[in-house]
Amino acid sequence: xxxxxxxTTPVSILGSAERAPVEVIVRGSELDSVFKxxxxxxxxxxxxxxxxxxVDRDKMSALGLNLQTMGxxxxxxxxxxxxxxxxxxxxxxxxxxxxxxxxxxxxDARELTFINSTGQKIRLDQFATVAESSGPSRLERxxxxxxxxxxxxxxxxxxxxxxxxxxxxxxxxxRPAGVSYIFGGESE
Length: 188
What we know:
The chain is α+β, with helices and mostly antiparallel strands. The chain has helices at residues 31-45, 57-62, 67-78, 106-110, 159-170; strands at 22-28, 50-55, 81-87, 91-96, 113-115, 121-123, 128-133, 139-142, 145-152, 180-183. It has a 4-stranded antiparallel β-sheet with strand order 8-9-1-10. Strands 2-7 form a two-stranded antiparallel sheet. The chain is extended.
């Protein structure tokens, strides 16, 4: 294919892409103006702060756990597992995951329990640092302009729908002079 542009996206152990599928790139000449409008875009995007888990692999291994078990358990606890099916007149997915009550706060993530190879219960905070984060703020340059990226992961909705709704929300907003935005991520 002539002129094809190919991008690869590494996927984390929890199944999420390291590159965010939704990205709005705000550009301009003045740093303050770019960041001010990027904050407006961020507020329109909404969503929840992310929970960052930094695993100490040596501790995890010493406790009899591995990344595969940790990733599968975490994925099931917070996103669910629909491998089970209910079959009657119609077939329905059975989604197994923690109840909303048990996945509301960062402490719920810290207290997530794993069963190691000897049958012991091990909490996530025994081998990992769990912290709330809003993602890194990065200042970059693109075509000699200041650039800030607002990124988001997508769960349960097509990214195209989110881009369309976000464009409707921000296209007519007043922007500081010289500030523009384009969509990146999967829209790119």
